[in-house]
Automatic annotation (TrEMBL):
Short name of one Pfam family: Abhydrolase_6
One cellular component (GO) term of this entry: membrane
Domain of life: Bacteria
Protein's UniProt name: AB hydrolase-1 domain-containing protein
InterPro entries noted in UniProt: AB_hydrolase_1 (IPR000073), AB_hydrolase_fold (IPR029058), AB_hydrolase_sf (IPR050266)
Chain segments annotated as transmembrane: none
Region named Disordered: 1-43
All residue ranges annotated as the AB hydrolase-1 domain in the record: 75-315
Compositionally biased residues, Basic and acidic residues: 33-43
Amino acid sequence: MCRRSPCSPSPRGARTWATSPSSAEARPTGPRRSGERRAMSAEPEFARWSRAVVDGFTVYQRPATASAGEGKDPVLFLNGCALAAAGWLPVIAEMPDRDVIALDRPGFAGTRWPGTLPDLAGELAAMERAIAGHSRVVIVAHSMAAFRAEAFARLRPERVAGIVLVDPSIEDYRFRGPAGRFSLATWMPVLGALVTREQIGEAASWLSHQGFLRQSGSGRALDPEAFKDPYTDPDTLRAAIAEWLSYRSQAADLESLRGRTEPVRARTSALLAPPLPSRSRSRILEAAFADLVRHEIRDSRHLMMIDRPDMIVEAVDEVSSAPEAQRPISARPS
């Protein structure tokens, strides 16, 4: 099982903190971070970017808007399971000195869901197309997207300048499970029929938003303009469920790849929110990444791009190949 359900409205089990506070008031506090309360609209923001739809994937590109970005590696953002690229906007707003590439999967951003489960090979091909104009990139991957970040770095190490894993899913499944075998015969017709009714989409939208609130320690930042919820669109809801169904098969494909390739050599920063990985999952992570630095972000929950966008920006600088950016990440609150 994954250390938290990657697509469900709430993580598996109760969230824990170092001092086990029982109320929101007892959680770690500190100075307000930039981006934590910023309201921004995804649609006007993305409207200013270059946008192309390639094989159903929506690729957004924003050039650096600050002169300090010359020579810095671009950043490719990979969304966690069932999340939209708009969730990264608080992070992107704090890195004007870098070219940025973001992706929405088929079914999101007004595109059609193709009627199939996503697979690791298809996700890697989409990444390759998205960065076609760049020699290499820093990959920032949230949750389940850690699977494709690791796989891409194993297969195309020359294209990866560094990796930031944002509260990653960590698995070593050896078997793909039933979803992959029965997808066309069983899951797809049911899924297609289930979410066609408008009230289903409205219910899913409400449930997902409640889940987002529980997976963020700064839930007030989840203003509709700052973290737009797309699940009233039937295609988006189908795509989200299909991605969840593909979780085990993608993890198993990655485990198979691990047996045929060397560990990832790119410098990698893993930003971990409570509940922290078990010892067994920590061993999986350490075996997969040869140059790994772990950081425990104890005042964040799973949606770290909302809670602590500043830590993600610092981690990008930490792993970046630009010599001037090689600096230790700042001290964490206790």
